[in-house]
Every structure is written in C-alpha cells, then in structure tokens.
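Session log. Operator J.P. requested a structure for one protein chain; no other inputs attached. Running the standard single-chain path with token output.
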Amino acid sequence: MAVSKVVFGNKTLMDLTGDTVTPEKLLSGITAHGKDGEKITGTCTYNADTTDANAVADEILAGKTAYVNGNKVTGTMTNRGSVEGVIKTKDEVYTIQSGYHDGSGTVQIDSTEKNKIIPENIKEGVSLLGTVGTYTGEGVTAQSKNAVPYTDAAQTILPDAGYDYLSQVTVEKINYVETENAQGGLTVTIGTVSTS
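Structure written below.
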C-alpha cells in the first residue's frame, strides 16, 4: 500500500490525502501522486484552459480549428489574401468586404485620375489631396468672334483651334438691303442665309 501521509512527532511532513489531482486533470504523460499516494499518469490532452475563450466560427479563418470553452470550432472566415482596389471618382467609396486580409492589399486613386492631380491643373493656393496648385490663369488664350445671324439655321459659337475660350461674341445687326427692281419697285432683302 502506498504512503499518502507522513507525520514525524507532532509535525506533518507530507499529506496527500486532501489532493484532488486525477489522471484526467493531469496533462497526458505527466506523472504525480494521488490522494491515496499511488503514482498516476496524466491522460488530459488539453494544454490550455479554454473556458474563458469567446471566439466564434466567423472570427476564425475558414478551414482552421480552435477550441472555445472546451469545444472544437471550425472557422468560416473567408481568406481574401491581398485585395486591390481603385477609386475613380471623388464620390466613389471602396467597400471592404468582411474576412481575413493579409495586410498587403491597397486601395488607391486610379492612376489615370492621379496623373491629373498636378500643380498646373489646380488653382494657385488651393491644396487638392496634398498637391498645392500653381495655376494662375496665365497661358490661357481667349478669342473674340463676330457672328452674323442666319434666317434659316441656328449657330453654336465655339472658339477656334488654339483658343481656350471666347472672351466675347459680337452678333452683327440683321442685314437689311433695298434694291430697285425692273418693275419700278423695291426688292427688300432681310437677313443672311447660311452657307451650309
């Protein structure tokens, strides 16, 4: 019979009788002595207390497993890896999908749009996405035009090639011509007919 308590005189040198260790509470392969003094070998395969764990399946990567409060949980979280996104308009919003991201993904302004954000395209003194404008209006070429109203067609007046805008458009007066005709009267011509 194994010894579970040793008393020397009035002094207790060893007392295992109050111990609560049992094989299922002792990690597998670890040895100890029970309250009866007999040697026991642990059978518990757990290496951590999971009673306070609170993860749920969608917080664990899909295909991976974990133990939560003593229960094995298989993950359902989508692995999205490296995600790339671009924004093409000022009001566009990039929505980040739920799931695992490996940290190497990026979201940025579309390169075509980014190339337009240069100082020369931004009014002087205005900062746009960290780029301070230098444009003062210099180098812009204006054109002044005259237009004759037609009686048979509408006109759209635009600047010619090489001009940026129209500084003014002068609309001529409506043409009015009187000429004597062979019958002794007057022929009155009003307006101008388009050439197209």
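Operator note: Residues 118 and 171 are 38 Å apart (CA to CA).
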